[in-house]
Structure formats: C-alpha cells, structure tokens
Design a protein that fits this description.
Layout (H helix, E strand, L loop, with lengths): L1 E2 L4 E5 L6 H13 L4 E4 L6 E2 L11 H11 L2 E2 L3 H6 L21 H8 L10 E2 L5 H8 L4 E5 L4 E5 L21 H9 L4 E4 L7 E4 L4 E4 L2 E4 L6 E4 L11 E6 L4 E6 L21
Helix pairs in contact: 1-2
C-alpha cells in the first residue's frame, strides 16, 4: 500500500505507446498542480486496427516519462504480455506454466475467445532491457490512502485485474467479486481503465451511471468503482482524469484528438479486435 497525503490526483490509462498524448496529459496535470500522478497500465501495446500513430509511437519514451513522473503505476494486460509474464490474478483462466513457450497456434487452440489475441495485429514494442525490468516490477493493483479515501488502482476489475481475459462488466451485479475484493482491502473507491470509456462509468452495489466527459461528485458513502478513459488516440474518444479527494470530485478531460478509423479490411473480422 502507498500512503500519501494527497488532494488532487492526475490519472492516465491505456497509453498504448502514444507519446504525443501522454505529453499533452502531463502538461495539463502540471497546469492543474496535481499533487500525485497515477498510471493505470497498458503503457505499451500498439494494435493496428485501433491506432494510427505508426510513425510517432514509442513504448520506450512512454515508459521513460511514466517512470520519471508518476507516483503510482500498475500493469495492464499489454504490459504483461510484452514481457511474457502471466497475470497474478488469472480470472479462473488456467494458464499452463509454459504458456509463453507454446507457439501461436497452440496458444489459440487453448484459449481462443478466452484471452486476448495480441500477436495477430500488435506491433513489437521494441523494449529495452531497462523497459522490460520496469514493467516486470509493476504490481497488478496498488492502494493509495489520501486521508479522505482509500483508493484501489488497477487496470481492470477483480478477478480480471490486469484485463487479460476477454470479459467486460457493464452491470452492478458483475461487480460483486470486485466490491468484495475492495472490502477485503478496506478501500472505498476503485479507479480503473482498460475499456477506453468516453468519460467515466461509476458503479456501486445498486446502480451504474454512465458519465460523459466533465465533472461529477461522488455524493454518498457507498463503495464505488470508477472506470475512466484511455489517452491513446484511437477509435474511442480519448482523455484522462483528475480526482480531488477533498472535494470528492472526479473530472474527466477529453483530449479532443481526431478519432482514428480502422481500415475496412478489419471490419469484417471482429474476433481480431482487442483492448
């Protein structure tokens, strides 16, 4: 657990090697005088169907900026895959210990439509040994105690904490295990990414609310789970978040990048698309 006396927390997720948008977010955080910065994972992972910044992408530059500027960083599914590390929280997927020694076709035979198919359309992130060491040292969740809140940060939702399994949660009932996990960690708020929300989705044990980019307050004392935007310039509207723990206010800020439209050749094969 990370103990910090903080008020304003800048949050990014799903960078996917987009150094340009990461720099834009950092400039905004500096202007807003954020006390601490959090990265929710998927620093790496450039998927051709979803992103168009082929000539500017840089996993190494993104990792360098994250390492030198961010106080809390967790691993996402693409980060784990890039260093061939199995997720600690496997969401009931029974990975063989030699999973990364298997060839592509045997991996697909075992887990088609169960875990993400990275190798079919993701480009090599070209990591240095230092980059790989940094990603290898990341946990799948971190806890930050602000004095006002105890916040659980993860790439996605327990038990699919890293987002490695093809499974999305859109109803409050889907969050039962996650809320139980939060209670065991004594956390009252969780903040995650992975799904590239166009704003933020807020769940409690009774309701779900979809919020477009903007400001909203966490009005009551129920345990809440928030899923926010990604910053990568892709097929979803991109942005980042600031949480003010004194005001109990979350602000999601759009980057207003022109959306990327993936090529027609990918539109007929939905199975290859990935988060």
């Amino acid at each position: 657990m990370i103990n910090l006396n903080v008020m304003k927390i800048g949050i990014v997720s799903d960078i996917h090697e987009d150094i340009i948008r990461l720099k834009e977010a950092l400039i905004f955080f500096e202007k807003q005088k954020c006390d601490k910065l959090v990265c929710l994972g998927d620093i790496v992972g450039f998927s051709a169907p979803f992103y168009g910044y082929f000539t500017t992408r840089s996993a190494s530059k993104c990792i360098e900026l994250i390492r030198s500027n961010f106080d809390v960083v967790v691993a996402g599914n693409h980060d784990l895959h890039s260093i061939k590390k199995l997720p600690e929280f496997n969401a009931d997927v029974l990975y063989p210990s030699d999973f990364y020694d298997l060839d592509y076709h045997n991996q697909i035979m075992l887990f088609e439509n169960v875990i993400w198919n990275y190798d079919k359309n993701s480009l090599n992130p070209l990591l240095t040994s230092s980059d790989a060491d940094f990603l290898s040292g990341l946990n799948e969740f971190e806890i930050l105690d602000t004095g006002n809140d105890k916040i659980l940060f993860s790439h996605y939702i327990y038990p699919n904490v890293s987002g490695s399994k093809i499974e999305f949660y859109r109803e409050s009932a889907d969050f039962k295990q996650h809320f139980e996990f939060m209670e065991r960690q004594k956390c009252n708020i969780s903040i995650s990414g992975h799904t590239h929300e166009e704003g933020a989705v807020v769940f409690d044990n009774q309701s779900v609310k979809f919020n477009s980019f903007g400001r909203f307050k966490l009005k009551n004392d129920k345990i809440k789970s928030i899923i926010g935007p990604g910053i990568a310039n892709g097929t979803s509207a991109n942005g980042f978040s600031i949480y003010d723990s004194n005001k109990k206010e979350l602000r999601t800020i759009p980057l207003k990048s022109k959306r990327y439209r993936y090529p027609d050749c990918f539109k007929t094969d939905k199975n290859i698309l990935q988060k």
